[in-house]
Amino acid sequence: MTGQGLPLAGFRVLELGHYIAGPFAARMLADMGAEVIKVEPPEGDPHRGWGSQVNGHAVWFSIHGRNKLCVSLDLKSEDGREKVKALAARADALIENFRPGYLERIGLGPEVLQAINPRLTIARVSGYGQDGPYRDKPAFGSIGEAMGGIRHLTATPGVTDHPPPRCGVSIADDIAGIYAAMAVLGAAWATKGNPEAKGRIIDVDLVGSIFSLMEGMLPEYGLFGWVRQPQGAALPTAAPTNTYLCADGKWLCVGGNSDAIYRRLMKVIGREDLGADERLQTNIGRCANVKEIDAAIEAWTRTLPAAEAERLLDAADIPVSRLYDMKDCAEDPHFRARQTVMEVRDPLLDRTLLHPAPPFRFDGVSPPEMVRWTAPAIGAHNDHVFGELLGGK
């Protein structure tokens, strides 16, 4: 349970988060070996009730709460707050994602916690950030996607009577969680080897996290007044890069946007004439004539099942993949060989589950060794944490 062999073994994190963003950040650190103590209300994190259930426990939470020590506390009680202070005193970092001002209102603001432990790094994740005119507005991940700019881009070009879809996962929460974990490690580096260093306070928001993904769109607007519009499946700055319908109704993503790859692609689809066309020898020329190229590629893909078209393009060393669903991911030999998909026994669910491996690898530690345990029950580690770690406090 110590995370030995992992880079964050011995790094102590207190999680006061709920739902997705804060706990996702803490899980990233836990997967790297940190000792994460997740503080939940007596009824548990509301996220424990999300999604499919087995034996009354959420399947998703098996991943979301893995590698964490779970304790239950009522933060509105004096005893609960005193225990949080005692935990903060021994922690390197604290992650919270309550609405701004909540910790201050219950007497657990940064000033209080850093008075107890001056080296404590505090990462605060919220919808709009800890300041600004929208600070006190409620927000979930969907609001971050909407205001951060990504929902505008996920629309289908030319379609105005259907709302732009979400990408299918809680991307604003996940990105904010990743950024929070990165910032915690950056702050930890700043205190490394300096006994006088004070812990930093980190401010991460859902809107800003999504906004950070908008590539060059902000300077383009500032300089030229350009507002990028939805592009569908294509990449507007490189061609051909698109997703094409196949004979079996499945989709094939093809990236043929280097000069040499483009010529190989045209040879495979039997369009050497386009491969030799002087207009199409550079990316600029191909972007200017992309509709003609895309039409030629899809005329070919529509004659073949996706797997066969993928095999032919793969043999020609052309970047290609079918659009995988979860069945494809779970059964793919590469996912299994790299243990990106792992079989993990969950005692709470009394089942063997498929878990995604942490998205990073460290030499000397296999992916299954990084998943030390699945999400425990509410308060499962109360005795260990409050008795052994805090000496009965």
TrEMBL record:
Keywords: Transferase. It comes from the Bacteria. One of its GO terms (molecular function) is transferase activity. Gene3D superfamilies: Crotonobetainyl-coa:carnitine coa-transferase, domain 1, formyl-coa transferase, domain 3. Pfam families: CoA_transf_3. This is Carnitine dehydratase. It comes from Falsiroseomonas bella. The lineage of its organism: Bacteria, Pseudomonadati, Pseudomonadota, Alphaproteobacteria, Acetobacterales.
